[in-house]
Amino acid sequence: MATWFAQRRLRQQVCELRPQMYRMAFAWCHDAALADDLVQEAMMKALTRLKSLQDENALKSWVFRILTNCYRDWGRRQKDTVDVDSMDLTCEDCPERQTERNRLISEVHRAMAELSTDHRQVVSLVDLEGFAYAEVSEILDVPIGTVMSRLSRARAQLRKVLLEQQAADQGQTAEGPHLQLVRNRHG
Amino acid sequence: MADKRVNAQDDRPSEELLNAFVDGEFSPEDRLETLKRISCSEHLSREVCDMHQLKELVNMAYRDVRSPRDGGRPGPSGRRSWFPSVAAGMLALVLGSLAGFELTRDADFLAGAPATDDAAATLADGNGLSEAAVSQPVAAADADNVLLHVNEADATAMAELLDDIEAMYREAEAAGRDLNVQVVVHNSAMDMLRADRAPHPERVAALTLDHPSLRFTACAQTLEQLARAEGGSIEILPQAERVDSGVAEAARRQSEGWIYIKV
Predict the structure, then answer these.
(1) N or C: which end of chain A has fewer CB within 10 A?
(2) Same-domain check for residues B141 and B246
(3) Inside any domain, residue B61
(4) B152: exposed, middle or buried (C-beta count within 10 Å: 0-12, 13-18, 19+)?
(5) Best interface-test mutation with A: which of B47, B57, B260 has the largest number of A CBs within 10 A?
(6) Mean pLDDT of all residues in chain A?
(7) What Rg do the C-alpha atoms of chain B give, in angstroms?
(8) CATH number, domain containing residue B207
(9) In angstroms, what separates the C-alpha of A166 from chain B's closest C-alpha?
């Protein structure tokens, strides 16, 4: 009973992380239902193991580490590879599908989907949730130098893919590519 | 990070360090020094600008991604997941029976919204009480609302329960929070509130006097069964109230967002 209120507060904080967890899971797998499952599983584990949390201040990275492990476990269970071209990355039927913003979003989703899992996780943890490199290192259980090199390579590949996509679009649209300032020194 | 700041070959920050700079990983001193170096090179300036742009693009691409249960659009996949509802139910059961509290609140959050009808229905369906549960709106606000569900208890367990209630009120008072506690008694625990058999009537009276937000409620169905079995009406303590059904009352409180504790 002594830690009753503290446990309750932590539980609430875990539950409040749900939207961020979902966004992260979706960025990793690009599958709405799977992202939902992963978040659900991670939250269930987090809530039932809350007493094992050593440092309350590390709650967020602890929860995302659990999510990472859930995603990793899911990956291990998969025998077949997922064909990126067969993935529905954005809604196909909504009217705004044709807007420029959605086109960009779609391109970024596709570029992200082409990254390796390791690279995609690092980029999304840093760019979506703003985790510090040290936190990402802890969440993914890799050295900080690995975080830095993965991030660097991931962004280089993202740039490359986005430029290729825009180059392909150039012939179809009058408007020039959005990443005009981006140069690709890696390929 | 400062020792790796410069690439020895061309005196420019490495790609990793430029990323770290963009991600705000540098100390203020390192950041200032790197900024000076970047400002001296048009190439570096544009590269850093590109990195910022890419970072912003990635962020923008997922900014509006929301779970369908959070009100976002349905996902592109046609698969309707059975796992979340089962998991929510499982979690509710696990937390309810093992941890013994916070069941409803957690299940509600897992369902993606505070105390939604879906969550209430999930919980209530398991008990066959969906109508009673779903009909109630959310009631939990700033106060902690705790339901203690007692259907089996001997005199010792009852004394411990009263101790726990006292402790909860002490903690709430120390934390400066309001606390509402309702004890729902039915089945073989009814002795706790029976006028002729209650093991601790004076403590029940004292507690309700000290804490007006504490309610002891007795299941009317159990009382009727006892009355039929014993041949006569069953009187309960004056501090206790009758509710139509103990189980239904527990489900109703859960649907209102009360913390459920199975004693």
Answers:
(1) C
(2) yes
(3) no
(4) exposed
(5) B57
(6) 81
(7) 29
(8) 3.40.1260.10
(9) 14
Q: Please state which of the ranges A126-135, B88-97, B126-135 shows the lowest mean pLDDT.
A: B126-135
What is the rounded average pLDDT of the residues B172-186?
A: 88
Domain A1-82 has CATH 1.10.1740.10: yes
**Residue B30's pLDDT band (cuts 50, 70, 90):** confident
Amino acid A17: pLDDT: 92
Q: What residues in A contact B19, CB-CB < 8 Å?
A: 148, 151-152, 155
Q: pLDDT digits over B214-240, tens only? A: 999 999 888 988 888 888 888 999 999
Q: Which residue of B47, B61, B164 is in closest CB contact with A109?
A: B61
Domain hosting B49: range is 2-56
Cα angle, residue A72 at apex, residues A68 and A76 outer, rounded to 5°: 170
d(CA A58, CA A18): 16
Query: Least CB-CB distance to A182: which of B53, B66, B77?
Result: B53
Q: Is the pLDDT of residue B147 over 70?
A: yes
Q: Say which residues have a Cβ less than 8 Å from residue B117's Cβ, sequence separation at least 6.
A: B134
Shortest alpha-carbon distance between residue B65 and chain A (Å): 6
Residue of B nearest to A23 (CA): B65
Q: Which of A127, A97, A159, A154 is nearest to A23 (CA)?
A: A127
The ipTM (two decimal places) reads: 0.72
Fold entry, domain A89-187:
Arc Repressor Mutant, subunit A (1.10.10)
The pLDDT score that the predictor gives to residue B259 is: 82
Give the pLDDT confidence of A85-137 residue by residue, as tens digits. Answer: 555 555 544 454 456 677 788 889 999 999 999 999 999 999 999 999 999 99
**Residue ranges of domains in chain A:** 1-82, 89-187
Region B169-184 average pLDDT = 88
For residues B150 and B252, membership in a common domain is answered with: yes
Chain B: residue nearest A15 by CA?
B109
Model's pTM, two decimal places? 0.50
Residues in chain A with CB shorter than 8 Å from the CB of B17 are 148
CA pair distance B177, B144, nearest whole angstrom: 7
Picking from B124, B100, B122, the residue whose alpha carbon sits closest to that of residue B109 is B122
Q: Chain B residue closest to A160 (CA)? A: B54
**Amino acid, res. B61:** A
Quick count: other Cβ atoms within 10 Å of Cβ B174? 9
Tell me the mean pLDDT in the region B167-185.
88
